[in-house]
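Apologies for my clumsy wording, but can you show me some protein sequence, whichever is easiest, together with the matching structure tokens, please?
=====
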Amino acid sequence: MFKITGTVKVVNSTVQVSEKFSKREFVLTDNSGPYEQHISFQATQDKCAMLDNVSVGEQIEVSFNLKGREWTSPQGEVKYFNTIEAWRIEKAGQGQGIPQGGPAAMALDPIPAPAATGITSEDDDDLPF
């Protein structure tokens, strides 16, 4: 799972790809790095409705998964495709989001502080084994 905060640049309509599959694409502008990035996301199935209340120019936080697949053409050529699939959208500031310093400022594996147990170092010698 990944998260990014940015400005909505484009919100497309839902497209019914097949009888059982629908998708909706949108573009988010990310200004956290030295260069502006325009990142294309897609929402699928019931997640398409998440974009109903999203407006161009609005700051949002997107939770997403990266998906990749392999495809072999009829000529035998193998190609690879990536999809950035959004599964949650929140107005900026409502979630915990990415810190001001960008993803590099995130503590990905925080070490929890030791819990107070009430055991002193003298008690450590009285272990039953």
Remarks:
- The chain has one domain: 2-95.
- Residues 2-95 form a domain with the OB fold (Dihydrolipoamide Acetyltransferase, E2P) fold (CATH 2.40.50.140).
- The chain is about 0% helix and 45% strand.
- The longest strand covers residues 59-72.
